[in-house]
Amino acid sequence: MTDNQETPDAQDTTPSGRATLPLRPPCERLSCHKSNVCSRSYFVVVMVFFHVYIINVIALLFYVHYSSGQEHATQSRDAPSSNQRLESRRPPSKPVFLRDVSLSRVEGIRVGHVQSLSLVPGKVHEMRTLSLKPLLFEIPGFLSEDECRVVMQLAQLKGLMESQLMVQEDQEELARELNLSPEEIFNLLDNNQDGQLQIHEILTHSRVRDGIWLTPENLREIYAGLNVDKDGNGLLSLEEFRLLSNDAFQRFLLQRGVERSQLVRNSRHTWLYQGKGAHQVLQDIKARVTRLTRLPPTLVDLSEPLQVVCYQEGGHYHAHHDSGPVYPETACTHTRLAANTSTPFETSCRYITVLFYLNSVDGGGETAFPVADNRTYDEVSLIQNDVDLLDTRRNCDKSNLRVKPAKGTAVFWYNYLSDGKGWVGEQDEYALHGGCMVTRGTKWVANKWINIDPDYQRQAHYQQLVSQQPEDEDDGLTLSPDMQGTDIHQDL
Questions:
Q1: Which ranges of the chain have pLDDT less than 70?
Q2: Helix, strand or coil for residue 118?
Q3: 214-218 contacts: CB < 8 A, separation 24 or more?
Q4: Among 220, 224, 264, 485, whose CB has the most other CB atoms within 10 angstroms?
Q5: 10 Å Cβ neighbour count for 294?
Q6: C-alpha span between 225 and 378 (Å, rounded)
Q7: CA–CA distance from 303 to each of 106, 275, 295 (Å)?
Q8: How many alpha carbons lie under 13 Å from residue 396 in its C-beta half-sphere?
């Protein structure tokens, strides 16, 4: 090897004498082919573009998915699904109404408490609490003398009918329809389940079935006439009770004869319409009752018309309830159309009774509440030792509370308790009341009953059927604007 020959590994020297590596092309240093991308800057640029591309693709996928989801939701709202189309072909089921209304109840506070009322423009009425069981109030001057006169004249113009027939026939038809045996009837009447029927248990049965008010003395006379009380102890065994089955009891009454004084109710009455087109006085009274009770106007409008009753001397109405207890197998008379039931049991569902005295009675005629504010209520104890608290001809003076008729005065009470949720609850048994016998003169009264079904669904459905409103519109139970947020009852 000569001095001028270079070797591949020979080192270059700097002017300072230090050795340096020979300069080579980049590709040669990295031992790579010239066709590869070896620039770091180029690599970085490519990777940036690659990530941007990936991000754009992902964003596009999200956008497509979101857009298709929104379109599907819009189509679901606008066009019914197959299930919905199938549902629309099915016959409509019974509507379900939401409970969006609470029934206002006037507070009694305490017996003797007085509240001021604004029922008519320019006049203040005073309302006094008479009892808490039932919740009972008295409002003097509720009607003017002219209004009392107009109501009586309208009733006479229309004509009054007897409130009760003397003796109704075919009273066993209901028992046959129910297919009750004598044993089943006996067990129903035997309240204390002692195997014998006492006099008051039979009296209750006869009054409900025949509408005839018999005294214990009358019943003993019937026992003797039919020879059913074999041992004469005044009690009937099942074998003895069988002798009263069928029409034997009623045939005896027809043969014996029944006087008007023996009827549960001895009066004449008529009904006066209070809707559009009625006499202005009748419409004014209805509006005043609506403000008094603070109930939705629709409930008052769809209740019974005004009943006007006339009691002549000797007239009476033995103690009774205006409303009956409502059981699952019982339908309210006013909502039976909406109940869709064929049950033979129905009752008057009168949430509130407003009673107006149209004249002052010369003698008797008080409204008696036999067990008002009693500590307890026991139906059996109403007849004890031949003293019948239900008998308003003989024992009115034994009632806990009596209201004397005075022209223009109104009394009103609740026949049902509250259910605690703003609707109708159980029957208030303390609302038992009756009309004492008129001993002198004539007695004129009017009754305004407000009918409400304790079953909210039946009441709302009934109102929808009557008003012919679509189900998605107002069900008729909404308070009118002028009744919302106002309280006409103020303490004095």
A1: 1-94, 165-180, 204-210, 245-254, 256-258, 340-344, 468-492
A2: strand
A3: 214/262, 215/386, 215/388, 215/391, 215/394, 216/383, 216/386, 216/388, 217/386, 218/262
A4: 264
A5: 16
A6: 31
A7: 19, 11, 12
A8: 20
Task: Check: CB of residue 467 under 8 Å from CB of residue 476.
Answer: yes
- How high is the mean pLDDT of the chain? 79
Burial-class residue 166 by CB neighbours within 10 Å (0-12, 13-18, 19+): middle
Q: Which of 238, 367, 350, 234 is nearest to 293 (CA)?
A: 350
Tokens of 492: 């004095």
pLDDT, tens digit, for every residue of 127-164? 999 999 999 999 999 999 999 999 999 999 999 999 87
Q: Are 262 and 213 in contact (CB under 8 A)?
A: yes
Separation CA 200–CA 202 (nearest Å): 5
Tell me which amino acid residue 483 is.
M
Rounded to two decimals, what is the model's pTM? 0.73
The tokens describing 426, both together, are 């159980």
Distance, in Å, from the CA atom of 14 to the CA atom of 16, rounded to the nearest integer, reads 5
Residue 117, classed as helix, strand or coil, is: strand
Dihedral over alpha carbons 127, 128, 130, 136 (to 10 degrees): 20
Nearest to 237 by CA among 189, 204, 203, 205: 189
Taking the CB of residue 92, how many other CB atoms lie within 10 A of it? 7
How does DSSP assign 139-184, residue by residue? ETTSS-HHHHHHHHHHHHHH--EESS-SS-S-TTHHHHHHT--HHH
> What DSSP line would sit under 282-328, residue for residue?
HHHHHHHHHHHHT--HHHHHTS--EEEEEE-TT-EEEEE-SS----T
